[in-house]
Amino acid sequence: MKNCILLGATGLVGSHLLKLLLDDQRVDAVRVFARRSTGIVHPRLSEHIIDFSRPEDWQHLVKGDTIFLSLGTTRAKAGGKKAQFEVDHTYQYRFASVAAGNGVNTLVLVSSAGAATGSPFFYMRMKALLEQDIRRLPIERMAFIRPGSLTGPRAEKRLLENFGVFVMRLINHLGILRKYRPIHAETVARAMINAALSAKPGVTTCELNEVFELAQEV
After folding, report:
1. In 3D, which of 95, 93, 86 has the Cα closest to residue 135?
2. Dihedrals phi, psi of 71, to nearest 5 degrees
3. Which residues contact 40 (CB under 8 A, 6 or more apart)?
4. Is-contact 130 111, C-beta < 8 A?
5. What share of residues in the chain are helix, strand, coil (percent, to 5)?
C-alpha cells in the first residue's frame, strides 16, 4: 500500500480516506484523480484534475500498488439514472481496467449493503453490476466494502438522504434491518485501509458487520 491511487477524494468517504492515507506513515504517495481540486497541499499528494470520459489523457498516470474506488453521486445531482450510472459504474470500472493494465495489484471498492443484481432498487443493482464487472479484471487482490447509509458532514445538504438515515436509525432501534444500519464515513475509510493491508489473493466481500469490525483492526 506504499503508492496509492484514489478516486472520489472530494466525496464523503473519499475525503476521510485521503486524510487517513496522508497521515499514514506506511504510505509513500497518494495520487488523486478528480474533476475538481481537494484544496489540500501535501508533499506526498499528487492531484490530477481530469475528464473521466477521456482516458487517453490520464491512463498513463494510473500507477501504484493499491487503487481505492470511492467515486459516487446521487441520481438527483447527476440528473437521472443514466448519468448516475456513468459516474458510479462506468468511470470506476474504466479506472479499474486501466489500473489492472498498469499492474496495480490491490483494489478496494466502496459498494453498498444489499448489492444484488436482482434487487428492486436501482442503486443496489448498479453496485452489484460494478462488483461483477470488476471481479473479472486481472487484479490479484480485491476487497468490496458494503456499508449501509453513510453519515458525516457533507459539502452539500441532502435533506431526503438525511431523513432516510434518521428513519433507518429508528427502525434499527427496534432490531429491524440491522444489516442496513447507518455508518460514519470515517469508519468506512478506516475499513478500506485495513482491507487493503490485509487483502488476500482473490475477492473478499465485507458486509456491514464486517466493515465495523475491519475498521477496528490495526
Report:
1. 93
2. -75, 140
3. 18, 22, 47
4. yes
5. 45, 20, 35
Q: Are 7 and 14 in contact (CB under 8 A)?
A: yes
Distance of alpha carbon 214 from alpha carbon 218, whole angstroms:
9
DSSP state of 89: I
Class of 3-153+184-216 in CATH: alpha beta
Give the pLDDT confidence of 61-115 residue by residue, as tens digits. 999 999 999 999 999 999 999 999 999 999 999 999 999 999 999 999 999 999 9
Is the confidence at residue 146, as pLDDT, over 70? yes
Q: Which three cell numbers stand for residue 207?
A: 458486509
Q: Are the C-beta atoms of 147 and 192 separated by less than 8 Å?
A: no
Cβ(11)–Cβ(185) below 8 Å: no
For residue 77, which amino acid is it? K
pLDDT of residue 163: 47
pLDDT score for 36: 94
At 42 the three-state DSSP class reads: coil
pLDDT, the chain, mean: 90
The per-residue pLDDT for 207 is 94
Residue-wise pLDDT for 187-208, tens only, equals 999 999 999 999 999 999 999 9
Q: With contact defined as beta carbons under 8 Å apart, do 64 and 47 qualify?
A: no
3-state class of 3 per DSSP? Answer: strand
Residue type present at position 154: R
- Domain segments of the chain as ranges: 3-153+184-216
Q: Is 84 exposed, middle or buried (0-12, 13-18, 19+ CB in 10 A)?
A: buried
Rounded to whole angstroms, the Cα distance separating 31 from 38 reads 12
